[in-house]
Request: fold
Amino acid sequence: MIEDKNQQRTKLSDIGEFGLIDHLTKNFKIKRKSTLKGVGDDAAVLNFKDKNIVVTTDLLVEGVHFDLSYMPLKHLGYKAIIVNLSDVYAMNAQATQVTVSIAVSNRFPLEALEELYAGMETAASIYGVDVVGGDTTSSTSGMLISVTAIGEVVPQNETYRSGAKPNDLLVVTGDLGAAYMGLQVLEREKEVYKVNPQNQPDLELYTYIIERQLKPEARKDIIKLLEDLKVKPTSMIDISDGLSSEIMHLCKHSKVGCDLYEEKIPLDPQVISTCEEFNIDSTTVALNGGEDYELLFTISQADFPKIKANPNLTVIGYMKEATEGAHLVTRADTKIPLKAQGWKNFND
Amino acid sequence: MIEDKNQQRTKLSDIGEFGLIDHLTKNFKIKRKSTLKGVGDDAAVLNFKDKNIVVTTDLLVEGVHFDLSYMPLKHLGYKAIIVNLSDVYAMNAQATQVTVSIAVSNRFPLEALEELYAGMETAASIYGVDVVGGDTTSSTSGMLISVTAIGEVVPQNETYRSGAKPNDLLVVTGDLGAAYMGLQVLEREKEVYKVNPQNQPDLELYTYIIERQLKPEARKDIIKLLEDLKVKPTSMIDISDGLSSEIMHLCKHSKVGCDLYEEKIPLDPQVISTCEEFNIDSTTVALNGGEDYELLFTISQADFPKIKANPNLTVIGYMKEATEGAHLVTRADTKIPLKAQGWKNFND
Reply:
């Protein structure tokens, strides 16, 4: 669909492992003061003085997390970095370094990996992180990307999943469900393409939701905003699996309950119209869709005046005693228990 | 060959991703003072005061780096940790934390992953490192393990691949070639097993070399020894790809040449006898075999008296001007240029 059939192809076996690492990482420039030594030795060397370090890691597997028939490799590289940075920001920390390992089968030429790394370099550059190490190896089938992200935070700013108290407000950034609906559109176009490869899809109605799927952003800006507003969340998590799962994580780790108000869930108009077109309930999409990479956090009610005017932040509920459980309060004012769905990627 | 056909099998799809992470990591206890927060949030939180941090990462792919027909899962878990710790020690640093991500297909039951994690836990426990995070996901085929290791080092002790000077002595720990010959024996037994599954292999003659392949150790002890001896290597690297490649790395990064003496290369008697049996040249095995996870380093000649009596350390050559190149000086006193081979795992 997006593939260029005439692209240049250099076999990976013509380069060898050592040559490949050098080649793919040669554009990675060191930007962070804390990076003393980047790619090229047994390990990277980092220095952080009075700050704590946060570390997080994610695996992206072809056929499970991405489909190269509609995911351009540059976007995939970008997204692989973003999903990890999002976890760092969810600690109220600044992302500083990443390591990147890839396993690829021989079907990928060098030029494909260059595209992938160009996307990673773009994300690293925009978010101000250094790529300080990695590994490249062959796989028996498909592509797999493993990214580890490192960040720094002054100890008093650390924000965990635990820490939410009853009566704290539940706040979400941006809007939800767009990445999932973008995926639905892309999957549909893939089926159309299979039937008629000459068909040129008109995706103009879906630009926002497709971009949210193919090129998500992490909310580095929110960490800065919270600092400027002098708001320290009592708990925080990023939305990778869907709002419902993430709320359950906060409740479990903080030992609290929650009321989430359906009418407050922020949805983009394109999500609403595409949900109507696909005959899917938009609340279900927001609750279980995932891949939004927005931040979900709780604040003390005393901090409400500081955030209430901000268009990036929406109060969607409040925390309760654990014994009261976690519920969705629907528009019809009925209460439905929330369920953690997560990625069901071990299903047969 | 080793598989127990009657083992208990719990489907991964019965547990789900969140349950699986909790289940597999519940035995990981925090041992390190620098670990403020381990598994269970968006990221781990670490604290290092006046030390630098080293980070390294490795991917192990089924069918490329390991073969489960003779690699018990517990050993595989152990080895996955060891190969990363080895990179940390090669920086003259102490390993402190690791993150572990795995991608597995549905053919693995829960009990298989428990074995894998038990091996990881054993290695983490023996080497005193904390498992602080990770990711579990499904793969479309086979198993893939991604480990990132973190360590700490006081700045004046950092040892890079660069730093070797002409006339520095080239020193290697332990002995070489055993892991490769262990693999040859295991591959042969696998072929025998294919022909006759009733055949009980007698591996008593090969216990050392098979253990070196299936359950390698990282040279944490050498970092302590160097500290006790007050020897700071001028450069250091671990031997994962083979002596020849690693010497070439030191030469390239340090901009020096090298003379390596064939007669000095330390070989275990079991390696020599197995090489004779397989009709393979033992020097070739030591140079190109890999997976020894010994340390290779250079020291100033002034430090020679401090190391010369130590049975763990063997001087195998010395560094020269870059213009003189890197050579093997054979027993017949001829000079052969060294070549970097590395893992040729992108070959068709």
